[in-house]
């Protein structure tokens, strides 16, 4: 790496450029969605709970829902209600998911609109790879538009949820970008594992993690898997724009 090209860069930016193997920013920036760009934890927990009540006969606690590892809407509902009732369960979910937005949707994380605006202004192709279904995506973006993306890979599009890397690979194929020239930014270990398996540079984002102990544990594990650590959206913008 040319030392002159990295003068004034943050440590994160220099490390990212080194991982990409050149002095240039990434050729594509891929993001997880929930917990990375938008706050939906409370919204999802309540929408899942209400959607499942007619099929399970009781309301699951937050701990019970989280124990199901809800990385994928489709797989969560399949595991609880089976294939025959899946479509009906989804209709319940979408109704609650939309109705609860005004009170439980936490919006876009601070700094994310500026991050996306800066990357678009710099001409970076952007993509989303998420365990969210396409219909839920459409509901959310009606409340908090994130702007255009060059690749959108939803839960409906892949054979298996993250940490399976198929979603990231599909996005890269759409963008025609080699994995070694791209990054994937996410807030969970499954995001990091998917990025590693896909061959992109994994970036662990911290702005959604408030609990100091869990944050520290996440950083330790993510770093051990080879992820770079982005403290703020601005860190990512400065490194990638």
Topology pattern, helix = H, strand = E = HEEHHHHHEHEHEHEHEHEH
Share of β-strand residues:
5-15%
CATH superfamily of the largest domain: HAD superfamily/HAD-like
- Tally of DSSP β-strands: 8
Number of spatially distinct domains: 2
Shape type: globular
Average pLDDT, all residues:
94
CATH class of the largest domain: Alpha Beta
What Rg is obtained from the alpha carbons, in whole angstroms? 18 Å
> What is the topology, as strand order, of the major beta sheet?
5-4-1-6-7-8
Annotation field: number of helices: 12
Uncertain segments are 1-7
| CATH fold name of the largest domain | Rossmann fold
User: What is the CATH architecture descriptor of the largest domain?
Assistant: 3-Layer(aba) Sandwich
| Helical residue percent band | 40-55%
Short summary:
This protein is an alpha/beta fold. It has 12 helices and 8 strands.
Give a structural overview.
With 241 residues, the chain is of the alpha/beta class. The chain has 2 domains: 3-39 and 108-240, Rossmann fold (3-Layer(aba) Sandwich), CATH 3.40.50; 41-104. Helices cover 50% and strands 12% of the residues. The protein has 12 helices and 8 strands. It has helices at residues 11-20, 41-56, 62-67, 73-81, 86-99, 101-104, 112-121, 134-143, 166-175, 189-198, 212-224, 233-240, and strands at residues 28-31, 38-39, 107-108, 126-129, 151-153, 182-186, 201-205, 228-230. Helix 8 (134-143) links the parallel strand 4 and strand 5. The longest helix has 16 residues, at 41-56. The chain is globular. Residues 1-7 have low confidence and may be disordered.
């Amino acid at each position: 790496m040319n030392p002159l090209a990295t003068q004034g860069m943050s440590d994160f930016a220099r490390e990212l450029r080194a991982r990409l193997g050149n002095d240039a920013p990434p050729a594509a920036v891929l993001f997880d969605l929930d917990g990375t760009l938008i706050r939906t934890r409370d919204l999802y927990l309540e929408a899942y709970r209400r959607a499942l009540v007619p099929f399970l006969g009781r309301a699951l606690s937050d701990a019970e829902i989280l124990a199901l590892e809800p990385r994928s809407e489709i797989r969560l509902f399949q595991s609880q209600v089976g294939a025959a009732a899946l479509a009906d369960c989804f209709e319940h979910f979408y109704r609650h998911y939309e109705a609860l937005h005004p009170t439980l949707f936490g919006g876009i994380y601070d700094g994310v609109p500026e991050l996306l605006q800066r990357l678009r202004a710099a001409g970076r192709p952007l993509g989303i790879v998420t365990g969210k279904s396409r219909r839920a995506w459409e509901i959310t973006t009606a409340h908090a538009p994130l702007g255009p993306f060059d690749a959108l890979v939803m839960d409906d599009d892949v054979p298996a949820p993250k940490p399976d890397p198929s979603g990231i690979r599909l996005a890269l194929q759409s963008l025609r970008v080699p994995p070694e020239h791209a990054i994937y930014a996410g807030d969970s270990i499954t995001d990091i594992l998917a990025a590693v398996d896909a061959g992109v540079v994994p970036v662990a984002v911290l702005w959604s993690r408030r609990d100091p102990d869990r944050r520290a544990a996440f950083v330790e594990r993510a770093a051990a898997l080879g992820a770079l650590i982005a403290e703020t959206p601005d860190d990512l913008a400065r490194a990638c724009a």
